[in-house]
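for the writeup, i need someone to sanity check this before i put it in the appendix. the sequnce is what the collaborator sent (i think, or maybe the updated version? ugh). structure was predicted straight from it, no edits. if anything looks off just tell me and ill rerun, i have time this weekend
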Amino acid sequence: MTDPAASRRDERLALARVLVELGELAEAEVVVADLLDAQPDDLEALSLLAKVKHMAGQLSQAVACWAQLHARSPMNETALMHLGALLHLAQDPERGAGEFLALGQLQLMKRPAAHLELEEAFRLLLARRPDEARARCDRLAVLHRRSDPALFKLATLAGAWIAELAGDPEAAVAALEGLGEERGFETDTDRVMMLVRLYERIGSRDKLEAAVHIYRYLEDRFSHVGVLARLGPLHRSLGNVALAEEYERRHTAAFRRSMHRASRSDAVRAAALCYLPLDRLRTIPRQRDEQVAAETPRERAIERALAGEHAAARELLAAGDEVLDRKYLADLAALDGDEEEAERLYLAALALDRGDPRVVGRLLERYDGSRSPAIAAALRDPEVAGEAAEALRAAILRTPGRPALWRQLGLLLGLREDSEASARAALERAAVLERAAREQAHPVGRVLAAGVYHFVGKRKGLIHEVWASREVALPGRGGTLPPDRVLGNVAPELRQAIQNTFLSVREYARTVFPHLTGDLFDYTYTYKITKDDEASYGASAGLPTAMAFLSVFLQRPVPQDVALTGVVVSDSHHVLVLRPVGDTDRKVKAAYHRNLRAIVVPAGNAAELEASPIVPAAVRAELVRYAADLDQAVRLVFGDEVFLHTMATRLRTVPPASRP
């Protein structure tokens, strides 16, 4: 028997996913927040809240949600993260030396003696003395075998990890299998997860079959998307093609769901719960092989409508007697081009539900184009106008930056003779917001960069921004990026790389786009990396940085549905090549999580990315674009037309015999 509370919770989650897919993040956040207020331990709702924060650019809050999710996950591999922290301390002599750990400027914490022992073991490993390191771990494990099971486990795992890092996976397997024979550790998740990766690394048939056995156990116990990701490649390696294809299909579906991408089933279920215009729902595609669950007559009607079967949908909706059915009948009339019938049905819906801002908005949009007397008469009614205005104001309070809501409020107020000043103010606000929205959708100098955030020993892909801007320089001081204008929490090596990229892209732009960069030396430039509560390292921001500078040099806007990652290397003044970066699979996953259209990555990452089980092949094909050099990246971001005039200019300067 279906649990009504669970069913309502699933309906609300489906609604939130659909709202996110439609870009209504504020409304989605309200739905998710209500779910978490009722059930704070709902991990799926918390994960969806992290997505909303990520898409809204509220990265610190997104990271906080991810940290909570990781801490509560049954497969968080806490022990290995603990060991990773100890290894990091061993690598940092200044921070790791001594009995005390600095927590702040004036705060110290005394570390347990056993942890100091494990740190010393990792120092021995770093000093290329792995046998001594393992011996120290073994002594610590024997010492605490009976008195402290947690420390016994940690020491044993440390010895196994040191063996793996030293290139002896068989010894690591023996240590972990031995730990499994100890009472209480047979199904320990930390042990099992470390062991199964070693089985895969060794790669013999018996080890791969053992890995499949372990992953099947984890699948039954946790239903984790990462488990499905591994079973497909393992079965393919063992020659089980049919099983491999089945697990790959299941992984793709589970991956999309874990990324909270709305399905057609979500759209149907959510629309049966509250009014969501059909023309907007049709933008949510039906996934391949998706079986749409439609149980009630209204759900079946919505499913038919989204499939283009309007007559069947209309028949099912006409049999209903609720106002929501009338709203969808109005949508169907509008989709069929019957504006007169659509207006009549929207007005009938408004008479029954005056507080739905979407219906009010539909009528006002029609009035703006037709100046319909019937719509004007309905919305001049004091009671109707009052409730409609209240609904629009409530929607504006949730999302004050949406110009359509301000325009609708202005039109509504304009129907009342005593509200002309307020109507003009709302319409002016709408016009300003529309201009700002166009600029924000295609800004100059702002680029989405795919990065990796490290917290509690785990790597998490995220999308952040890099900014470049310019201002008029004093005579003779233009064309530069002064050191004090590289802003953000930037590590010294990255600061130097940014300066290098600036100079390389400046010369590239002057050579490839001379007709667009004649004023390049009239300005001084500024650069900033966001998410500056943590230091930014690495050179993978080279490509987004290059694109940000090029956008400013050319004064060409950058689409905000594309992220980039890649190392930029100058081969010459007009040839900048792209080198591979690390953690590409996590960056692609982050781009998909952010609902982006594409991510541009170096062509050198293609083989590594295609071998990674983290992102399904179907998602890679949909999302990833490869570039070998800056020319190709520019085409992917700005389009081919950016080169057309320059190409013609070059042809005129090339001798006829050498032309293609």
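Residues 299-440 form a domain with the Serine Threonine Protein Phosphatase 5, Tetratricopeptide repeat fold (CATH 1.25.40). DSSP finds 32 helices and eleven strands in the chain.
thx in advance!!
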